[in-house]
Amino acid sequence: MGPELWQVIALSLVVSGVAIVVSMVLGVPVGIFLGLHRFPGRQLLVTLVNTGMGLPPVVVGLVVFLLLARAGPLGSLELLYTPTAMILAQVVIAWPLVVGVTLAAIQGLDARLRLQILSLGASPSQLYWKLVREARLSLVAALAAGFGSIISEVGAVMMVGGNIRGETRVMTTAIVLETRQGNFGLAIALSVVLLLIALGVNWLFTWVQQRGRV
Amino acid sequence: MSLLALEGVAVEVGGRRILDLEWLEVEPGEIVAVLGPTGAGKSTLLRVAHLLERPLRGTVRWRGEAVGWPAPLELRRQIAMAFQDPLLFAGTVAENVGYGLEVRRVDGAERKRRVSALLELFGIASLAARRPASLSGGEAQRTALARALAPAPELLLLDEPLASLDEPIRQRLRSDLTTILRRHGVGCLWVTHDQAEALAVADRVAVLEGGRLAQVGRPSEVFYQPATPFVAGFVGTGNTLRGRVTAVREGIVSVDLGGVEVEAVADLPVGASVLACIRPEDVVLGRSGGATHHSARNRMTGKVLAVLPQGATTRVTVACGVRLEALVTRRSAEDLGLVPDLDVWLAVKATAVHLIAEAG
């Protein structure tokens, strides 16, 4: 494989890696908050999150495209067809997944656990941190599910990234292109790499879960 | 000065009053058992006592000082709680026991020392590196109790701590826990629905009924002189019979129970409606025709209706104008040859008949 191929693989990992980290940082606290507190409008938010978990990536791509297009509200930032635009689209796809899985994980914990942690002298921030630690296996699941969904996604990154050679070309968009051009060997090679990455992520996830159980 | 005092504390949920206490306090080092059926407000009481729930009205005092809301963390940290379920965290037994010290930022060496001391105290030192999933119910509950006591709280709140354990394990842990609480002078509010447990562990017993205190007193007072029919029923008085005072003479009142007359020590006027409580273990029973030299004031004869062995004791129901239950040792039940239809005599001391005045 040539250096260009390595660049494509690296960009895929960087874009999806940054996107999942941003989604976790923005999504886990929201999931915990929704899981712990009852307030007016919460049910609506939960419904929105659940809907967001099933957003068609192509629709996300279109919305982000319209936002970043030259005439769009964020057009002046000139982000369209950059890796940043791709990260943004992937965050929009992964964030509801992270929030939803975190919410389910927190709700899955014993309701009395919160009282028990407080009763041992935890401050509010110590309580949050302890709940995250108690729910960490589910959070690893959120991480794996989110990463898996965005690294294999093609519609949104194609629309907002543009599949520009050497700039925004990632594995999925490269596979589409190479297949179209009849370079099946290259397309298959990239697909194998993508599968190996998916396998690796899942293996890591299972390993962490097994370790946590013992 | 009391450690914790609840004064006129009321809590409402959805407009329904679920707790309404005139006065309840725990002295330093004192064990107060809170007895009551499900839904009597026991868990709410514990949340308020833990300064985690602000009551609708009333004052909570810690060492005489009124607590402001939300209660400061430093105050909350003088109190710890353990539940019926151990609710252990992921991690080892030692990590669990150390959690309260971890959140208080106790340094590593001191934390290690405290954790070892607590593990030793609860007899689980050999389990230090084990994970919760591999523990038995008793071991897990010992871990939970060690965890609650590790930060050396002044007040321990217990919500049915032994209710899910099997009998022999429960009794051992009960005695170990009381010994530890006594030795370290930890005050304790111990919620239970088990009257035997309350009797065994408590300096004082508080009986909750529908969020209100039906009675607070030493165990012997609550068990032998229940203040209300509810308390009598809940502490398992066994025999509660309605009657009317027919005569009063030198502090001894005669009560007609409708079929049989008993004498009791009480200060009640003639004509008063009463509920007479007689604990089954205070009823002495013998075979008619056998030895009858018993000094009790109340002597009756009757027929055995039912004999129900209960392990070391046997519960005997006798018809003697009214139905009375007696609790005799298994051995004496066998020696007397108790069987249904047998003619027997019964004796009850006047001091063993407790009268509760009833309205009307």
Describe the protein in words.
The complex is a heterodimer of chains A (214) and B (360). Chain A has ten helices and no strands. Chain A has 214 residues and is an all-alpha fold. Chain A has a single domain (3-213), classed as MetI-like (MetI-like fold). The N and C termini of chain A lie far apart (41 Å). A six-stranded mixed beta sheet of chain B has the order 6-7-8-3-9-10, sandwiched between helices. In chain B, strands 13-12-11-14-20 form a five-stranded antiparallel beta sheet. Chain B has two domains: 4-230, Rossmann fold (3-Layer(aba) Sandwich), CATH 3.40.50; 279-350, RNA polymerase II/Efflux pump adaptor protein, barrel-sandwich hybrid domain (OB fold (Dihydrolipoamide Acetyltransferase, E2P), Beta Barrel), CATH 2.40.50. The longest helix of chain B has 18 residues, at 167-184. Chain B is of the alpha+beta class and 360 residues long. Chain B starts with a strand and ends with a strand. Chain B has helices at 42-49, 73-76, 93-103, 108-121, 137-149, 167-184, 195-201, 219-224, 229-234, 330-336; strands at residues 4-13, 16-26, 31-35, 57-62, 65-66, 79-82, 155-159, 187-192, 204-209, 212-217, 239-249, 252-256, 261-265, 273-278, 284-287, 298-310, 313-319, 323-329, 343-348, 353-357. In chain B, helix 3 (93-103) packs across helix 4, helix 3 packs parallel to helix 5 (137-149) and helix 4 packs across helix 5 (137-149). Chain A binds chain B through residues 110, 112-113, 115-116, 118-123, 126, 130, 133-134, 136, 212-214, and chain B through 47, 50, 52, 73, 76-77, 79-81, 83, 85, 87, 89-90, 99-100, 103-104, 131, 133, 147-148, 151, 157.
In a nutshell, what does this entry contain?
The complex is a heterodimer of chains A (214) and B (360). Chain A has 214 residues and is mostly helical.
